[in-house]
Amino acid sequence: MKGPLRAFAAHVLPPAAALVLALLMWEAWVQWRDVSILVVPPPSAVAERFFERPGFFWREGGWTLYEATLGLLLGSAVAIGLAVVMAHSTLAERTLFPLAIIVKVTPLVAVAPVLVILLGFGTTPKVVVAALLSFFPMLLNAMTGFRDVNPGALQFLRSLRASPWQVFWKLRVPSAQPYLLVALKITYPLALIGAVVAEWFTGDRGLGLVIFSANYNLDTPTLFAAIGVLAMTGVSINVLLSLVERRLLFWHESVRSTR
Question: pTM, whole model, 2 decimals?
Fold first, then answer.
């Protein structure tokens, strides 16, 4: 248990200390400058609003996390499938990669209302928006990982007359694991952002609706409390993925060098 506890403390304690210091400075600055609560609320007011209805904030945050996770799974599945094809075919890369860039540069705020009109008010448009945001980083990392193989190991497998399928599972998949885990750290927060933005236009549930309604009503403590829940969700996911990375990639130099 000492190893996991030490890893947990190493990942949690430093950012927790930095967060506490930042909140104290924020509180002192707001009190010193006498800033209106309508502009920037002090952390004490945000905490008070959160603890008035903690179940409400966590419930809405749970919906956003659920939608973001579905979007991440959808976007990652499509991205990894295309990455496998593009890593084995230069023609496929030349054909499909420009389309992936179009998806990447399309403004999310412009796409979300259209998806709501096409797919209706519900979970589906939020999942699709989250998938669109998580698609390109996962595609790029997966394609790079599948190609970044040890040349000596590749030649050895070919000398044994290994099939392309065997080369893929025995060499390319292990080589891509570090890239895929890094991509997850990037794409999960992006999927959360995508779900929140889509919730602005659907108006049924989620942290996006809470943020939109609080901003419209000038209820800044509620707005910041929702943002805080979203931030804590993202940080928790990142810490969890870091622990998973250390457990799965104990053999990789990037993990061994940090022990």
Answer: 0.83
